[in-house]
Design goal:
Layout: H1 21-41, H2 46-53, H3 57-73, H4 75-85, H5 87-105, H6 111-140, H7 145-153, H8 155-186, H9 189-195, H10 207-216, H11 231-247, H12 249-260, H13 265-290, H14 299-317, H15 323-386, H16 389-414, H17 428-431, H18 434-467, H19 471-493
Helix pairs in contact: 1-3, 1-6, 1-7, 1-8, 1-9, 3-6, 3-15, 4-5, 4-6, 4-15, 5-6, 5-8, 5-9, 6-15, 7-13, 7-15, 8-13, 11-15, 11-16, 12-13, 12-15, 12-16, 13-15, 14-15, 14-16, 15-16
């Protein structure tokens, strides 16, 4: 955690930091928007759901909480599916689930049906899109990764600015049932984003190198639990779990807070648009700052500052008594919330690196799921008991500030500062799953089969010429054989500082 891990060096599949990566970034932008904006945008329908089913604030808050809990709690399942089948098919199936859940919820007859359809089914679909999109983004970007994370994270406020007013309009024109049905149709765009997640193409290698890789290739792990041996990873997981207890509470309750102060529904929903508009610019800016040469090795402290900023905004916002005060709160909350959103996964990538990120993100999201499941409903129960939004916002702010202190202090006390080191040379299985490898290897193998007969024909045509060569030229392969043996012996002695032997390049 003391320094950022950057994917450099000669690897089987090196991050291109551009090219098709920009298309992957666009897909991740859309998926992030749906994943994080949907639990907040659904809160626009809470007032109608309370009237329809005769429930309280805490009951409707469970909808957003279950959505987020599924997004986080199914992390290990997503990691296993991605490592087994690849990112693209998992995301396309997830898009179908996300759409199906909202369509079924439009026919709900009680609040339990909303929990199961919108919360569980749609939440699972969004989870199957969100995590693979981040994994693909991490594979395509290395040097520009902080900027890529900031741009992708900006999808959340952009979607929030669009979905919140859209939900309000749909509720007025078609009711909450029609609104759910139309939103379900919009979620089918997740399938199109999944189609953009093309696996990285590996450079062609000789048969000898491929055989050596197969011999030394370890059995792939569907879920790597060795990340828990990393002290920095443990500190990050604990701090992030405390953070999410209060991080999502203000966006869920700020609209209801404004309505409680006597503001119109449309005017109250505008607060989420203001928050999202500020957030749009905060996330890319934070990504640019995190990518600076001096800041990147210390991005964990920038992340801690962002959480302190966010928690302080919550505490001060709890004293708001009019609409103007809530607007000021949304501005500062949007800046701090954007910083947290842009940095949280960048810090995790910096801790574990490319190889273990697919497993690490799944395990982190699973641990955070418990806190996400408790946070908004607990705040709703506190609101039902006190009838005062001040205590809800103050509690959320204290939780976020506490998480920042845990992260910063534990990093200072328990993490030794190390000079920045690159990742070990990436093996093919680090960047591409087994299923994706089989698909990518089909084309090179077919080329070799088709080219084999041509090569045999060339050899037969060259045989008469080789018979007339001089004796000196015949002895030349012996020298080459000696050189190859010396190179092979020397290559066995070369190893990285972490003890991993480096294989000779294919040209040798």
């Amino acid at each position: 955690m003391g320094g950022a891990v950057v994917d450099t060096g000669d690897s089987g599949v090196k991050a291109p930091d551009g090219g098709w990566g920009w298309a992957v970034l666009f897909g991740c932008f859309i998926i992030t928007g749906f994943s994080y904006a949907f639990p907040k945008a659904v809160s626009v329908f809470f007032k109608e759901l309370i009237r329809e089913f005769g429930v309280g604030y805490s009951d409707t808050a469970w909808i957003s909480s279950i959505l987020l809990a599924m997004l986080y709690g199914t992390g290990p399942l997503c990691s296993i599916l991605v490592n087994r089948f690849g990112c693209r098919p998992v995301m396309m199936v997830g898009g179908l689930f996300a759409s199906l859940g909202m369509v079924l919820a439009s026919f709900a007859t009680n609040i339990i049906h909303i929990y199961l359809c919108t919360g569980v089914i749609t939440g699972l679909g969004l989870a199957l899109n969100f995590q693979p999109s981040l994994i693909m983004l991490n594979r395509y970007f290395s040097e520009k990764r902080p900027l890529a994370n900031g741009l992708a994270a900006a999808g959340s406020p952009v979607a929030l600015c669009c979905l919140s007013p859209l939900g309000q309009v749909l509720q007025y024109k078609y009711g909450w049932r029609g609104g759910f049905l139309i939103l379900g149709g919009l979620l089918l765009n997740c399938c199109a984003c999944g189609a953009l997640m093309r696996p990285l193409l590996a450079p062609k290698k000789t048969n000898e190198v491929e055989e050596k890789q197969k011999e030394t290739k370890p059995k792939p792990k569907l879920l790597d639990f060795t990340v828990f041996k990393d002290r920095g990873f443990l500190i990050y997981t604990i701090a992030a779990s405390i953070m999410v207890l209060g991080l999502f509470v203000p966006p869920v309750f700020v609209v209801s807070y404004a309505k409680e102060l006597g503001n119109e529904d449309t005017k109250s929903a505008l607060l989420l648009t203001i928050l999202g508009f500020i957030d749009i610019f905060a996330r890319p800016t934070s990504g640019i700052i995190a990518g600076l040469k001096w800041v990147r090795p210390r991005c964990v402290y920038l992340f801690s500052f962002a959480m302190i900023f966010n928690g302080t905004a919550d505490i001060l916002g709890s004293f708001a008594k009019d609409y103007a005060s809530l607007v000021v709160f949304c501005i500062f909350f949007g800046i701090s919330y954007g910083m947290v959103g842009a940095l949280q996964f960048e810090v995790l990538m910096a801790i574990v690196g490319t190889e273990k990120f697919s497993s690490a993100i799944g395990l982190v999201l699973l641990v955070e799921a418990i806190a996400v499941l408790v946070g908004p409903p607990g705040a709703g129960r506190l609101l039902d008991a006190t009838k005062n939004y001040m205590y809800v916002f103050m509690l959320a702010g204290c939780e976020v500030v506490l998480s920042a202190l845990v992260l910063a202090i534990c990093n200072l006390l328990f993490i030794k500062r190390k000079p920045q080191q690159p990742d070990p040379p990436a093996k093919m299985e680090m960047a591409i799953t087994e299923t994706e490898m089989e698909e990518l290897n089909k084309a090179p193998k077919d080329d070799q089969d088709n080219g084999g007969s041509a090569e045999n024909g060339k050899k037969q045509a060259i045989e008469p010429e080789t018979k007339t060569t001089s004796e000196d030229e015949v002895k030349e392969p012996e020298n080459i054989e000696v050189d190859s043996i010396e190179v092979e012996n020397a290559s066995k002695k070369v190893s990285e500082p972490n003890g991993v032997a480096v294989e000779p390049e294919s040209s040798l």
